[in-house]
Amino acid sequence: MNRYVAFLGSINVGKDRLKMVDLREALEREELEEIETVAASGNVLFTHEPMPSEGLAEKIAWIIRDEFDIDSEVVVMTRDELAAIIAENPFAQGPEAGEEKFVHTMFFLDQPGDMQIKALQIDHEGRGNERIAGGTNALHVDYVDGVGRSKLTGDFITRRLGIRGTARNIRSMKRILAKMDELNG
């Protein structure tokens, strides 16, 4: 059995409210084991027979859609994939590091192209102080002045890139990684 984390998007916004206890029960019925939510709703640790992360993401998205009628973005990663995403974020460490609660990674099921990232940067130019960098199936953003006041919203990013995703800040991602390490013992 392998340990994974699933990042779920769009499950606690508007009319789409999902209790984690109900989600756990639905996932257990579909052969996911040792299910635990971490750091906030929408972060689910679990074990499963070895399987590609993309296949598990599709399986969990199907479960959420079938059981709860919610169309959720689901990104699944192993411990090493999560560690690599944290390490590649240019705003998470070193001399360019931003404040952990303001540094985010938006995860996508597909890789945004270099031209899409460049177009997003150009469209956002002059709209705020945020710093943007592409990643592996991800977009790294330093919300220098805070997320709440930013014009670089998830909807803005989705419209410009043409793909949906779900974002987490570095602080949460590090807590999840530490929890995965703790559980792997």
UniProtKB/TrEMBL annotation:
Superkingdom of source: Bacteria
Signal peptide span: none
InterPro entries: DUF1697 (IPR012545)
Cross-referenced SUPFAM superfamilies: SP0830-like
Matching Pfam families: DUF1697 (PF08002)
Name assigned to this protein: DUF1697 domain-containing protein
Originating organism: Pontixanthobacter aestiaquae
High-level lineage: Bacteria, Pseudomonadati, Pseudomonadota, Alphaproteobacteria, Sphingomonadales
